[in-house]
Write a structure and sequence with these properties.
Largest sheet: 7 strands, mixed
Radius of gyration: 24 Å
Structural class: mainly beta
Oligomer: single chain
Strand order of the largest sheet: 2-3-1-19-18-17-16
Number of helices: 6
Shape: globular
Length: 715
């Protein structure tokens, strides 16, 4: 075979394989699921009927505000509105003291009770039946297909399924991208029941059908023979939250309107689209904590981000948290919480990853300090008040959403036990903070960064940097790929010479800015996993280079009139539209050097990186690129006590078991599509199972599936 033929094959395989982001920019936007008025909490009665008109519901809420709520400051520039629904009085007229401590059903060592395994987002299982020594014997235990899958070829948009299965109540619960709940036998995969809300399968805020699964709740003292003492919840793209009996799948009549709460009734400011509920709620002490997703990049003014605390039985609001100050919501929006959250059940602190404000790439009309935007913020679960907040990006103009829940773990530093959290970030930093105070455990340094040359923009003169632990991606972009440059006849080098690049936090520009890491990360929404006994943290990350270009409004309007759409986003009526382009040559090959994705382990007690290995493989038509190139990944790892990491995430449609000590791949299995959900690891009837929902994601590969596959050791 001639050398030029080999190069051509590599070129076509590499980009069509999945690093061909060029055709998936809208899906990338959809995974940045969309803030809110700053550090504000509201608590209100629910007097209006669920089916009341918007005007009637607003009138009722206004009456509640004036008659029953009190207002007190909270956090940086915010407020709290409390009322009877938020703090029911005790017999002596005083509020009931908050109940703290973990829910017993959630703490079972055999279960996988939440999206992240537990409230602390550790993604850790104490199961140790499967070990590094015997994992090579792992085999398929059972397989199930939900039937809820679409490739986008008909009226139903393509499905993107990132749902972690839950194992609790001796049942495996799945939420599908068509918003159905399916209950399975965890040992055989046999179907127990199905709940179908018959939700509209329409792309209202995202280009794809999307779902990240379900949440589970159980009463402290379940009453025998009574329905809905155990419940499963699922949300929809049109902002409906359903609650059903966990044993039968029947709607719970006392939850909202016969089993459904219309969350969009509270979408009253800049309500341009519904508050889509893809991420299942966080459940703690009879309360559901609920964020939402929206539509990024198109609007300058958007719904301001909120987190709702709902009664797990009735669906009534206890309080509403807002992240943006009221005085700016006529010029901005979002700063919402679209990723999952974590919670310390011992202290009752809820940790929320808050996204960037709109518009995402130009801040000339929101130059005020917005200290809760792009932050990790701790809220009191009883009141919604801000306990502390740490901003991770000042005046975010890169769409660096705080993208994943912080992982909570106690570490030993300088001989003392520290209640810590690890907050991953798109910009590649791992922020290790004291989770009770928000103070750094390892130093955070404010450093000067480049100024913006866009008219009206006021980029922050400094940004937070972290050197320990070492960032998941390097400080400098990887440089030009020689192979891609040869195939492109020097195209990559020529394009790079015309772009602005001054390191991390180089602002978007009219001439075009080479951005590394970009909105794809660094780290993404899956976050990391931790072995709490060893203090070892594991996280997968992406190495992607993109080009950010601001387009003056008059020029953007001409592009719109000419029908140009690919990679272009309006950003409302601000001074600039925006173009996002992945740095590729004509053949679709990445113009930067591999690896494109890695998996790394860190000792949190010292901050040392233990190992960092290329992870996954680029794949197309049965051919695989070298393992040393790695793969862009979506998803997250899980760790077991026996010293194994289980993870899907990569574009080559394989699931893997990896040695926690060395990073060596010990086992892998081909599945139907990229497994972009984290697995559930649980023990049922004395046997350990590792179960993946295999749904695919068109960002990685144009291959989707409805497969649920479970692995175990042979009998």
């Amino acid at each position: 075979m001639k050398r030029q033929d080999l190069i051509a094959i590599f070129a076509s395989l590499l980009l069509s394989g999945s690093l061909g982001y060029a055709q998936a920019q809208e899906e990338i936007s959809s995974d940045e699921e969309g803030g809110q008025p700053q550090g504000i909490t509201e608590t209100q009665d629910e007097e209006s009927e669920q089916d009341a008109s918007d005007d009637e519901a607003q009138a009722d809420r206004d009456a509640d505000d004036s008659e029953d709520s009190s207002v007190t400051p909270t956090g940086p520039g915010g407020r709290v509105e409390t009322g009877p629904a938020g703090q029911p009085p005790s017999g002596d007229g005083q509020p009931e003291p908050p109940r703290q401590g973990p829910d017993a059903w959630m703490e079972s060592s055999d279960s996988w009770a939440t999206f992240n395994g537990d409230l602390r987002a550790q993604k850790y299982s104490p199961a140790d039946q499967i070990t590094p020594e015997n994992v090579g014997e792992l085999e398929q235990a059972w397989e199930y297909h939900t039937g809820d899958v679409a490739d986008g070829s008909d009226d139903v948009p393509m499905s993107v399924w990132s749902a972690t299965p839950l194992f609790v109540n001796d049942t495996l619960y799945l939420g599908t991208p068509f918003y159905r709940i399916i209950a399975l036998d965890p040992g055989s995969g046999e179907e127990k029941w199905i709940f179908d809300p018959e939700a509209p399968l329409e792309a209202l805020t995202q280009p794809n059908m999307k779902g990240r699964g379900v949440a589970y709740w159980e009463a402290d003292e379940a009453q025998a023979g009574e329905a809905c003492q155990k419940r499963v919840y699922i949300g929809t793209m049109d902002a409906k939250l359903y609650g059903v009996d966990a044993d039968t799948g029947e709607p719970c009549a006392d939850f909202g309107d016969n089993g459904m709460v219309d969350v969009n009734q509270w979408n009253t400011v800049n309500d341009k689209w519904p508050l889509s509920l893809f991420q299942p709620p966080t459940v703690y002490n009879d309360t559901l904590f609920l964020g939402w997703a929206g539509k990024d990049w198109e609007d300058s003014v958007a719904p301001p981000g909120t987190v709702f605390a709902l009664d797990a039985r009735t669906g009534e609001r206890k309080w509403t948290f807002h992240a943006l100050p009221e005085e700016v919501v006529d010029r901005t929006g979002t700063a919402n919480v679209w990723a999952s959250m974590s919670l310390d059940p011992e202290t009752g602190l809820l940790y929320i990853p808050i996204s960037s404000p709109s518009p995402n790439y130009y801040g000339g009309e929101r130059t005020e300090e917005l200290p809760l935007a792009t932050s990790v913020t701790a809220l009191d679960t009883e009141t919604g008040e801000v306990v502390w907040s740490r901003q991770l990006v000042h005046h975010d103009i890169w769409d660096y959403d705080t993208v994943a829940p912080p992982t909570l773990v106690d570490i030993v530093k300088d001989g003392e036990t520290v209640p810590a959290l690890v907050q991953p970030s798109k910009q590649g930093f791992l922020f290790v903070l004291n989770r009770e105070t928000g103070e750094p455990v390892y130093p955070i340094e404010e450093r000067e960064v480049p100024a913006s040359d866009a008219e009206g923009e006021q980029a922050s003169p400094t940004q937070p940097f972290v050197d320990v632990p070492e960032p998941v991606v390097p400080d400098e972009w990887p440089g030009i790929s020689r192979l891609a440059d040869i195939v492109g006849l020097g195209e990559c080098s020529r394009k790079a010479e015309g772009l602005r690049y001054e390191g991390r936090f180089t602002p978007p520009s009219v001439e075009g800015t080479l951005t590394y890491p970009p909105t794809t990360g660094g780290s993404q929404w899956g976050g990391g996993a931790v072995d709490p006994e060893k203090g070892v943290f594991v996280i997968n990350s992406n190495s992607v280079v993109q080009i950010y270009r601001l387009i003056p409004r008059d020029e953007y309007q001409q592009l719109e009139q000419s029908g140009e759409t690919g990679g272009y986003y309006a950003q409302g009526d601000t001074a600039y539209g925006f173009q996002l382009e992945t740095f590729l040559n004509w053949a679709g090959m990445p113009c930067w050097k591999p690896p494109y994705g890695t998996l790394a382990a860190y000792d949190l007690n010292t901050g040392e990186r233990l190992w960092n290995e290329p992870f996954g493989q680029v794949q197309k038509h049965g051919f695989y690129m070298p393992e040393s190139w790695g793969s862009v990944t979506i998803g997250a790892p899980v760790i077991t006590r026996s010293g194994l990491i289980f993870i899907g995430a990569s574009m080559d449609s394989r699931v893997r078991a990896i040695d926690l000590e060395s990073g060596e791949v010990l086992w892998k299995h081909l599945v139907d599509a990229p497994a972009v959900s984290m697995p559930a690891v649980y023990t049922y009837e004395g046997k350990q199972y590792v179960t993946f929902a295999v749904g695919g994601n068109s960002i990685l590969l144009p291959k989707v599936s409805d497969q649920v596959i479970s692995f175990a050791l042979p009998d």
